C-alpha cells in the first residue's frame, strides 16, 4: 500500500534523475588536479565503517590526487538512500551494488568494460558467478569484492553448555529441531529469523521449490508457502524462535544472535567481522538444515561501480581498482568482512577466519548453492515481506495470506 506507492514514485523520480548529470563529487583543484570522490556503501557496525575507511585511505596512498570520502548507512536503508540521492541529483560517485539489486538500481551505474580494456584489468580473476550477477544487458555494472552463500551462524558456547553436538554441514531438519528445542530456555531461543527472503528462501529451495516463474515473483505456489510456514512455525507452534518486532528493526535477527538471545540464525560470510568483534562467545558456521538429505541455500555478493552522474569517472575507476584489488582483497579477508570475490584471496580468507566449520560449511554450501535470481521491484518485495512477515511470525495472519498480499503488490 504505502510502500507500493512509494516504490512507484521512486521509479518515476529515478528515471528523471538519470536524465540529469549531477555533481556527485567534490570540486577539482585546477592548479593541482586533486579530486574528492564520494563513496556510499552500507555498514551495520563501526567495524565495517573502519574497513571501508581503510580502503579509502589505500586509494589515496596509490593515487595521491584522489581523496575518497566514505558515507555509510545501514543495509536496510541503503538502496532507498541510493534512489533518494539519485532523485535529488546528489548521488555519490562510487556506490556499492548487490547482485540481487541489479534489476532495481542497476540503471544508476555505468558500464565498466571500457575501463577494463583501458587499464588491462582482468575480470577473469574474480569469481565468475558473482561477476555475472553484477551484469545487465551485457554491461558490467560493478566489480565484485565479495560473495558467499547464506550459512547458519551458531553460538558454540550455548551448544557446549547444553551438552549437545554442534551443527555440521549436512545436518538434518530433525537434528536442527532437537537442538533448537534443547537450546530454548532461560529466555534464550534456539533460532531467530524474520520475514526477509534471505532468512527463509533456503528452506523453500531445500524442499524443491522456486520463487520465480517466467521472470516474475511467484510467491503463492505451494512450496514457497510450505517453506515460509516451516520457518514461521518455529515461532508460532514450536516456540523455539521469537516473533520479530512490529517496527521491522534493521538487522534484528543478527542483533538477537549477537546479544546472546538466540543460538542460531542465517546470514552470509560478510557478517563475520561484526560477529567476531561484537560477541563474547565462540562463533561457529554450518549449513542450513537438510530436508531429506538436501540443503540448498541462496548466495549473495556485492561490488562497486561508478554511477552515471559521476563527473570524474576515470578517477572513480582508479579508486575502485584499488578498493577491489589484490591487496584490498587480502585485507578484506584478514578483517573477515567478506569471502573474497578475487579467487586468489579465498584460501587466505579460510586461513585467517579462524571460525569453527567455516571452510567446510561454505564449501559444502557453494557445491549446491542457488544463484539467488531476482526480479525488478525486489527491494520493494523484500521490504514488504519483512513488514508483513511479522504477522506470520506472531500468528495474526497465515504465511499464505502474507505471501498473497505481497504478491498482489509486486505483480506485473
From TrEMBL:
PROSITE patterns: PROKAR_LIPOPROTEIN. It comes from the Bacteria. It is found in: Cell envelope. Residues 1-24 form the signal peptide. CDD domains: PBP2_TMBP_like. InterPro entries: Bact_solute-bd_prot1, SBP. The keyword Nucleotide-binding does not apply. SUPFAM superfamilies: Periplasmic binding protein-like II. Keywords: Signal, Transport. Belongs to the bacterial solute-binding protein 1 family. This is Sugar ABC transporter substrate-binding protein. It comes from Agromyces neolithicus. The lineage of its organism: Bacteria, Bacillati, Actinomycetota, Actinomycetes, Micrococcales.
Amino acid at each position: 500500500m504505502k510502500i507500493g506507492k512509494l516504490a512507484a514514485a521512486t521509479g518515476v523520480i529515478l528515471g528523471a534523475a538519470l536524465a540529469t548529470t549531477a555533481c556527485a563529487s567534490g570540486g577539482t583543484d585546477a592548479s593541482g588536479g586533486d579530486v574528492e570522490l564520494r563513496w556510499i556503501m552500507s555498514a551495520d557496525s563501526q567495524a565495517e565503517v573502519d574497513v571501508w575507511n581503510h580502503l579509502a585511505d589505500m586509494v589515496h596512498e596509490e593515487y595521491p590526487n584522489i581523496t575518497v570520502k566514505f558515507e555509510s548507512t545501514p543495509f536496510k536503508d541503503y538502496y532507498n538512500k541510493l534512489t533518494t540521492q539519485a532523485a535529488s541529483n546528489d548521488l555519490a560517485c562510487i556506490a556499492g551494488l548487490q547482485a540481487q539489486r541489479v534489476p532495481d538500481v542497476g540503471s544508476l551505474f555505468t558500464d565498466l568494460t571500457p575501463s577494463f580494456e583501458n587499464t588491462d584489468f582482468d575480470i577473469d580473476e574474480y569469481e565468475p558467478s558473482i561477476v555475472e550477477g553484477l551484469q545487465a544487458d551485457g554491461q558490467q555494472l560493478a566489480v565484485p569484492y565479495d560473495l558467499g552463500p547464506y550459512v547458519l551462524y551458531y553460538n558454540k558456547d550455548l551448544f557446549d553448555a547444553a551438552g549437545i553436538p554442534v551443527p555440521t554441514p549436512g545436518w538434518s531438519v530433525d537434528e536442527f529441531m532437537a537442538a533448537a528445542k534443547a537450546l530454548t530456555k532461560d529466555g534464550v531461543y534456539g533460532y531467530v529469523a524474520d520475514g526477509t527472503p534471505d532468512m527463509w528462501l533456503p528452506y523453500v529451495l531445500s524442499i524443491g521449490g522456486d520463487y520465480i516463474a517466467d521472470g516474475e515473483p511467484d510467491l503463492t505456489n505451494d512450496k514457497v508457502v510450505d517453506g515460509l510456514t516451516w520457518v514461521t512455525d518455529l515461532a508460532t507452534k514450536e516456540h523455539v524462535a521469537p516473533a520479530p518486532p512490529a517496527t521491522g528493526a534493521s538487522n534484528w535477527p543478527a542483533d538477537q544472535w549477537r546479544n546472546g538471545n538466540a543460538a542460531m540464525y542465517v546470514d552470509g560470510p560478510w557478517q563475520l567481522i561484526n560477529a567476531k568483534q561484537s560477541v563474547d562467545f565462540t562463533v561457529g558456521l554450518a549449513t542450513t538444515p537438510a530436508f531429506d538429505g538436501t540443503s540448498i541455500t541462496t548466495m549473495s555478493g556485492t561490488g562497486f561501480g561508478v554511477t552515471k552522474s559521476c563527473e570524474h569517472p576515470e578517477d572513480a575507476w582508479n579508486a575502485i581498482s584499488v578498493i577491489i584489488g589484490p591487496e584490498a582483497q587480502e585485507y578484506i579477508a584478514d578483517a573477515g568482512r567478506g569471502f573474497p570475490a578475487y579467487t586468489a584471496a579465498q584460501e587466505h580468507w579460510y586461513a585467517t577466519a579462524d571460525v569453527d566449520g567455516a571452510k567446510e560449511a561454505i564449501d559444502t554450501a557453494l557445491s549446491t548453492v542457488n544463484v539467488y535470481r531476482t526480479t525488478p521491484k525486489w527491494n520493494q518485495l523484500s521490504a514488504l515481506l519483512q513488514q508483513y512477515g511479522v504477522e506470520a511470525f506472531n500468528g495474526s495472519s497465515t504465511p499464505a495470506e502474507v505471501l498473497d498480499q505481497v504478491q498482489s503488490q509486486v505483480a506485473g
